[in-house]
Design goal:
Largest sheet: 6 strands, mixed
Distance between the termini: 24 Å
Helix content: 10-25%
Structural class: alpha/beta
Strand content: 25-35%
CATH superfamily: Ribonuclease Z/Hydroxyacylglutathione hydrolase-like
Oligomer: single chain
Strand order of the largest sheet: 1-4-5-6-7-8
Bound molecules: zinc ion
Number of domains: 1
Radius of gyration: 18 Å
Number of helices: 8
CATH architecture: 4-Layer Sandwich
Number of strands: 14
Mean pLDDT: 97
Low-confidence stretches: none
């Protein structure tokens, strides 16, 4: 198993509350999270650092600061590169990271591997010593997006990843780079080839489940987001992975939950899943 796992915050952003909760009415979701005057809710962008032997493995990178000033304002993204600050709090620099697993290439999960936006300078890829793991299916989708989701991807990033020579396109649950302590679960309902990473830790297995279950409120099966390309498929995939989570007493680590970082999951007699705090 890995030595330890550490939650690492990246740049959060604000997004329309209705989009985040799919068809759940505001009368309900407004009890779970507070919206601002523009109906936006703040969404955490959490990453997870796993220290395995002498390797530092980072899962996801948050929104980062690559957005131009107009988009930064629209999404209310901080000027500070929060991921780099959070790593520094653990005496780490981006140069110290050996592997970055990107659960998918939506900008709020991978923008943090880029340098900050600057008027006169092109974006650069940070993490010069890291291999980047993306699923092959997600890579195919991101580089040839659908009109529905093309605004979620960062074409400049795809070029930089390709040019780096350090991009690994995963197709199987186990990879030789990650070794025995990591198992990649793939799903397609949120976006094709989303990776939920299961890690063997001293406190038992943990899954960084990413946007398959963005936070504890989404453990309830029918709660989806309007960013899911195939909500029914997502619900089926979520049910299958949650059954595995319950059977094996796995903790979930949530990417977008402002309040809950980890939780166990329970299933009651009616088949309803709940986060257990
Ligand atoms: Zn996403």
């Amino acid at each position: 198993m890995v030595n330890k796992i550490i939650p690492i915050e990246g740049n959060s952003f604000k997004i329309d509350g209705g989009s985040m909760f799919g068809h759940v009415p505001k009368t309900l979701w407004s009890r779970w999270i507070e919206a601002d005057g523009l109906n936006r809710v703040t969404v955490a962008c959490r990453c997870l650092l796993a220290q395995d032997g002498d390797k530092n493995i980072l899962i996801d990178a948050g929104t980062g600061t690559f957005l131009d000033p107009i988009l930064k304002e629209r999404y209310d993204v901080d000027e500070e590169h929060v991921l780099l600050t959070s790593l520094a709090q653990h005496n780490l620099k981006h140069e110290d990271i050996d592997i970055v697993i990107l659960s998918h290439l939506h900008f709020d999960h991978c923008g943090g591997v880029l340098s900050s936006w600057s008027e006169n300078k092109k974006l650069e890829l940070l993490f010069p010593n890291a291999k980047f793991i993306v699923s092959k299916k997600q890579w195919q989708r991101a580089t040839k997006p659908h009109a529905l989701d093309h605004a979620s991807f960062i074409p400049e990033l795809h070029q930089l990843l390709e040019q780096s020579g350090r991009l690994i396109l995963a197709e199987k649950p186990k990879t030789k780079e990650l070794g025995e302590n990591f198992y990649l679960h793939f799903s397609d309902g949120h976006t094709p080839g989303l990776i939920s990473t299961e890690i063997a830790t001293p406190e038992g297995p943990v899954i960084f489940i990413s946007d398959l279950v963005p936070g504890a409120d989404w453990v309830h099966l029918p709660v989806t987001t309007s960013f899911d390309r195939a909500p029914e498929q997502l619900v089926d995939e979520k049910a299958a992975l949650l059954q595995h989570v319950v059977n094996n007493n796995i903790r979930l680590c949530y990417v977008h939950d402002n309040y809950t970082v980890f939780s166990y999951v329970t299933k009651d007699d009616e088949g309803r899943y709940d986060a257990e705090y």
